[in-house]
Design goal:
heterodimer; A: 260 residues; Rossmann fold; 6-stranded mixed beta sheet; 4-stranded antiparallel beta sheet; globular; B: 252 residues; mainly alpha; MetI-like fold
């Protein structure tokens, strides 16, 4: 089985940035596991996730996602994009549409172009969307407009949309950063549980080591765009996470790193 | 020289020069200006009392004006959808949206009455040139508004749908349209109101509508009838205004 993602010697700088956001990153995300990306703000977590989603270009190195090499100069072919699902930090939902519409938006890449344009889902599409809603515990919100929901409910809609896409790799950018600890645990349980039930790989970023330990089988620490450690979560040492978050020595340029 | 310096002085001199130039070169004798007051009073006197027997003409004329405004607006919406997309930086490259925006600016620069005169020359008298003129003229503004509405939406859902494998038109339909719909409704109503207001006078150049009667009655010295039609136009403008206020509340 090919890994969910294979990254070799990846370096990337945001346009106009002095320092690279990712530097000589080599990683292997095993298929079917839940993996946490741990690191302080600005470490390059969002950048790495967006890059795996095929949304960045101009990087150097070799990156394969779900066995298919990414082209550093152009977006991935549209047909392959639904295989990689993304849960955006700010949810990226269509506020004025209903919950069900938003979740069905996750199906658009799987529909025929005409059906997608007309917004006319098949019964199969609807069933998958309803299952995703139920799995996320928001079946009763289906007809509500997103702009009437709370932050926690929106996060569930964002996850449901991603699940409706039937991705084999789920990338989640700080899925619990805005939630209280109880809700954060619920959401991560939901995300990793749904991924596992579907045989999908989940890669989520977080800056909370305890949550990462609880919900990921593997934890990758990144700091200043470099991989600090990559260990099974049972082997994660407190010193390692402490080092990850230790204040930077006042080197010139530090703190000016492009934050994405 | 004052604190605004030479720039302020130059501006004042320019304005004074323009006014003087207009006075000196306009072929109006002061005596005519003085007698204009009583003449206007006399003219207004002959408008009273307004002749109420022209209700049938008013009804016919305003119905035609309404039709011109509705069909002209419909034409403008149909033209503005593709042109609005082609003028938006979200949907197309600068190589495309820049020339389209320039084209729209040119269209906006031509006054409606001028377009109507040209269309009367091209297709003859009646409401058809009025409809074509309104559709053409309104597209210059409406397509620009639509493009701005597209470019004004939140980008995150567009990126999310792209990540899910949706193509550009599908993103327009499902990520952009739901966000821009209220803006489109508001802008379209606003433009319809302008179309209705502006097409009231199209009849003066033969392009159909109630303006035709104002022109006919003034030319045949039936000022009391012209007064009735003018009052009808004023009432309609106020009614349009009131309707617009109500609709804006609805779509706010």
């Amino acid at each position: 089985m090919s890994p969910a993602a294979q990254i070799d010697d990846l370096t990337f700088a945001h346009p106009g940035a002095d320092l690279p956001a990712l530097e000589q990153v080599s990683l292997r995300i095993p298929a079917g596991e839940s993996v946490a990306l741990l690191g302080p703000s600005g470490a390059g977590k969002t950048t790495l996730l967006a890059l795996l989603d095929g949304r960045l270009h101009g990087w150097r190195g070799r990156v394969s996602v779900l066995g298919v090499p990414l082209d550093p100069d152009r977006p991935p072919p549209r047909a392959s994009r639904p295989d990689t699902g993304f849960v955006f930090q700010e949810f990226a939902l269509v506020e004025r549409s209903t919950v069900l519409r938003n979740v069905l938006n996750g199906r658009l890449g799987r529909m025929s172009p005409l059906r997608a344009l007309l917004g006319s889902p098949t019964p199969h599409d609807l069933e998958i969307a309803r299952t995703a809603l139920a799995d996320c515990g928001i079946a009763d919100l289906a007809e509500r407009r997103v702009d009437s929901l709370s932050g926690g409910q929106r996060q569930r809609v964002a996850i449901a949309r991603c699940l409706a896409q039937e991705p084999r790799l789920i990338l989640a950018d700080e899925p619990v950063s805005n939630l209280d600890p109880t809700r954060a645990g619920e959401i991560l349980a939901l995300l990793t549980g749904a991924a596992q039930a579907r045989g999908a790989t989940a890669l989520f970023s977080s800056h909370q080591p305890d949550l990462a330990r609880r919900f990921a089988q593997r934890i990758i620490g990144i700091r200043d765009g470099r991989v600090a450690f990559d260990v099974p979560s049972s082997e994660l040492k407190d010193e390692a996470t402490a080092a990850l978050y230790r204040e930077a020595e006042p080197l010139p340029g530090l703190g000016l790193r492009a934050v994405s | 020289m004052g604190p605004r310096g030479f720039g302020g002085f130059a501006t004042s001199a320019l304005i004074a020069g323009a006014i003087l130039w207009s006075f000196v070169t306009t072929d109006v004798e002061l005596s005519r200006l003085v007698s204009a007051g009583p003449r206007i009073a006399d003219f207004l006197g002959r408008m009273f009392p307004p002749d109420p027997t022209v209700m049938a003409e008013i009804r016919k004329g305003s119905a035609e004006t309404l039709r011109i405004a509705i069909l002209g607006s419909l034409g403008a919406v149909i033209l503005s959808i593709p042109l609005g997309i082609l003028a938006s930086e979200t949907m197309v490259s600068p190589a495309l949206f820049r020339p389209v925006r320039t084209l729209l600016a040119f269209i906006r620069a031509i006054p409606l009455i001028l377009v109507a005169m040209l269309m009367v020359g091209a297709v003859g008298l009646g409401p058809l040139p009025g409809i074509i003129a309104v559709a053409f003229h309104a597209t210059g503004m409406l397509a620009k508004f639509y493009a701005e509405a597209i470019d004004g939406v939140s980008r995150a859902p567009i990126a999310a749908l792209e990540s899910a494998g949706a193509g550009p038109l599908v993103r327009l339909r499902h990520a952009i349209w739901p966000q821009m719909a209220p803006v489109v409704a508001r802008d379209t109503i606003f433009r319809f109101e302008l179309n209705l207001r502006e097409s009231l006078i199209l009849g003066i150049v033969g392009a159909g509508g109630i303006g035709f009667y104002i022109q006919t009655y003034v030319r045949s010295f039936q000022y009391d009838k012209a007064a009735s039609v003018t009052i009808a136009v004023v009432v309609m403008v106020i009614a349009i205004e009131a309707l617009n206020v109500a609709l804006r509340r609805r779509f706010a």
